[in-house]
Prior knowledge:
- Pfam families: ThiS.
- The protein has helices at residues 28-38, 42-46; strands at 3-6, 20-23, 47-48, 51-52, 56-60, 63-64, 80-85.
- By secondary structure, it is α+β, with helices and mostly antiparallel strands.
- The chain has one domain: Ubiquitin-like (UB roll), CATH 3.10.20.
- A hairpin with a 2-residue loop joins strand 3 and strand 4 (51-52).
Amino acid sequence: MAIEVRIPTILRTYTDGAKAVEGQGDTLAQLLADLESRHTGIQARIVEDAKLRRFVNVYLNDEDVRFLDGIDTKLADGDNVTILPAVAGGMA
């Protein structure tokens, strides 16, 4: 099962600069563990205490996984996962 994972610029140091990598897994948790096996350190930047980090957004086929099953979201062959750091800002 091949799943494309789009990597944000800030995490590309873990993927040797690759904008997208392929991974495998039946759930998002398994996919992230698979990525960790080939891109050491990336999982800790996305997950903390078996939950997605607060300021990291993960989308499955353009749907926020927090509105699905979070880290336990089921994946299928051909899915696209996008990891995006949350952006905040504004004027004081």
